[in-house]
Write a structure and sequence with these properties.
This protein has 527 residues and is mainly alpha-helical. The chain has helices at residues 2-25, 67-76, 83-106, 110-126, 135-154, 156-170, 175-190, 199-209, 215-227, 236-247, 254-276, 287-293, 296-303, 317-336, 338-341, 353-372, 376-380, 383-408, 410-423, 427-436, 442-455, 460-465, 480-488, 506-523, and strands spanning 42-44, 49-51, 54-58, 61-64. The strands form 2 sheets. It has a two-stranded antiparallel ribbon. Strands 3-4 form a two-stranded antiparallel ribbon. A hairpin with a 2-residue loop joins strand 3 (54-58) and strand 4 (61-64).
């Protein structure tokens, strides 16, 4: 019944979109560019000069208006906007939200496919020009996911997890701090948050047997696993940032980004961990938990032994891990000394790190393949590989649609937010956070928002400080790592919430992200 109602609502929205578009096309008067109606010279305060141009013969008056002026006004959103532009933007935004809603409802690759449906509607209903799909980010995810999957197939990922498990079991009293630190550094190491799932049952087992409320380390560990993405030198998000800044000619290197994101995100997760120490009731004072363990079957289930870790290790695992770590070290060295170590492209500049990351990660995977003689089929059967491919499809569709909406409404969007962002650049972090609440990828969010920030003239150091705010998809608690933390908590203390937003990840997520963003703003003034 609920699905039927939602389907009818979507169909009604589609009819409304078509009607609005037809009304716009059949308007009595054509839309006349602002340039053709200008009667006099206008000062542009931001340029502090007067520009005049030409243009059109409106009622016999020949006025010359400058093409540069029109371009400046269109890009910076300084001209009055046609009401139709407003209607188009808000209607397309509503369509995007509907697409995202159903993508979340079906999950997995559905978000990508529905994003493709959204692009189709934008083109054929609104006559929009589709933006360029995020090909480079998709290629980076493919390369990193494939190499990380090779690491899992050889058992090397199991070595890392077992090392973290050993630390947790030796220091159970500090699990609220050690658990998020483990997931954070694991994500930093492998470039994806999908590698942390084997650690979650360990975190639960350590905490429940120590009598610590599992929600305390589980929720913040799930948050930390995603917070580490922009702090990883091999993540798609970091590579996308380097590529976008290079395209804009801003001269921002990978090291410039990491020296802000690593300390700010780490301090953010520490603050979230401190808050988590006393969150919720202690288990002995939790009447709901005590009622559960009063049942012998429930008690056995809650305190029972966890299954042994699924990630097997063998004699080849150490070799695979060694070459993987050497590959990461090579990437960092190349990022620090690009002029000395990388060949020059056609413009006389060193190869972009976003491209270097792709072939170096594939090379590392190939070397691991040779030295371990692992089956290629085993690599494609791993959980990391599957999660990476799903992520590629999701980004392909939904990031493509989001970028298309922004590109086709860019003058109006700039008109809406340009004044407040120029006066208060930090508000761009809020905008990025709001976008991320609906997109399940930090790379996708950055691809959409960073070019917009550059168009608005936001200082580079401000854009870098805002990077941690690209993680907000914990807000509605539908991301796999959040759901995994809930499912692995047999005690039920880590919960999804009955009102959509009152879930276990909300407060530690808000603390970690906004503390990291605030610290980022402080660090960019000193580093």
């Amino acid at each position: 019944m609920k699905f039927s109602i939602l389907r009818k609502a979507l169909m009604a929205l589609a009819v409304l979109l078509c009607t609005l578009q037809l009304n716009m096309l059949n308007a009595a008067e054509p839309v006349i560019p602002l340039a053709t109606t200008l009667k006099e010279e206008i000062k542009i305060p931001s340029l502090d000069i007067e520009k005049t141009i030409v243009a059109s013969e409106n009622k016999g008056d020949n006025k010359v208006i400058s093409l540069n002026k029109i371009k400046h006004e269109e890009e910076m959103g300084e001209k009055p906007q046609d009401p139709k532009a407003s209607m188009l933007f808000w209607t397309q935004l509503a369509l995007l939200l509907v697409i995202i809603y159903f993508g979340i409802k079906y999950g997995g690759v559905a978000l990508g496919m529905l994003g493709g449906l959204g692009v189709t509607l934008l083109v054929f209903v609104f006559g929009a020009i589709p933006a360029k799909p995020p090909i480079e980010v998709m290629l980076i995810i493919l390369a990193v996911a494939t190499t990380s999957a090779t690491l899992e197939a050889t058992g090397a990922l199991g070595l890392i997890v077992k090392f973290a498990e050993k630390i947790l079991r030796k220091n159970p009293s500090f699990v609220v701090f050690l658990a998020p630190m483990s997931t954070f550094f694991l994500t930093m190491l492998v470039g994806t948050g999908h590698a942390v799932y084997p650690l979650l049952p360990v975190i639960y087992d350590v905490s429940i047997k120590k009598g610590i409320r599992p929600e305390r380390p589980m929720a913040v560990a799930a948050i930390a696993s995603q917070l580490g993405i922009t702090a990883s030198p091999i993540s798609a998000a970091a590579a996308a940032l380097v590529g976008m800044f290079a395209t804009a000619g801003l001269g921002v290197s990978l090291i410039d980004i990491l020296k802000i994101t690593i300390p700010s995100c780490f301090i953010g997760l520490l603050l979230a961990s401190i808050w988590s120490i006393k969150r919720g009731k202690d288990l002995e004072n939790d009447s709901e938990f005590q009622a559960k363990i009063a049942d012998p079957e429930q008690r056995k289930y809650i305190f029972g032994e966890m299954q042994s870790n699924e990630l097997e290790t063998n004699t080849k695992s150490g070799r695979a891990l060694t070459f993987f770590l050497l590959g990461i070290l090579a990437i960092v060295i190349l990022a620090v000394f690009p002029e000395k170590l990388l060949p020059l492209d056609g413009e006389g500049k060193p190869l972009r790190m976003s491209v270097v990351l792709q072939f170096v990660m594939f090379a590392v995977g190939a070397i691991i393949l040779f030295v371990t003689n692992i089956s290629a089929k085993k690599i494609s059967d791993t959980k990391v590989f599957n999660a990476g491919m799903v992520a590629v499809i999701m980004i392909f569709g939904i990031a493509w649609m989001s970028e298309s909406v922004i590109e086709n409404n860019k003058p109006y969007i700039l008109y809406l937010i340009s004044d407040i962002v120029r006066e208060h650049p930090w508000t761009f972090a809020i905008a990025m956070f709001c976008v991320s609440a609906f997109l399940k990828s930090q790379a996708a969010v950055l691809l959409v928002m960073i070019p917009l920030g550059i168009s608005l003239g936001i200082p580079v150091h401000t854009l870098i400080a805002c990077i941690p705010a690209s993680y907000a998809y914990f807000f509605f608690c539908f991301y796999p790592s959040d759901l995994a933390a809930i499912n692995f908590d047999r005690s039920g203390t880590t919960h999804a919430g009955t009102y959509l937003v009152n879930h276990s990840m909300m407060i530690p997520g808000m603390i970690a992200v906004w503390a990291a963003t605030g610290i980022g703003f402080l660090l960019v003034n000193f580093l």
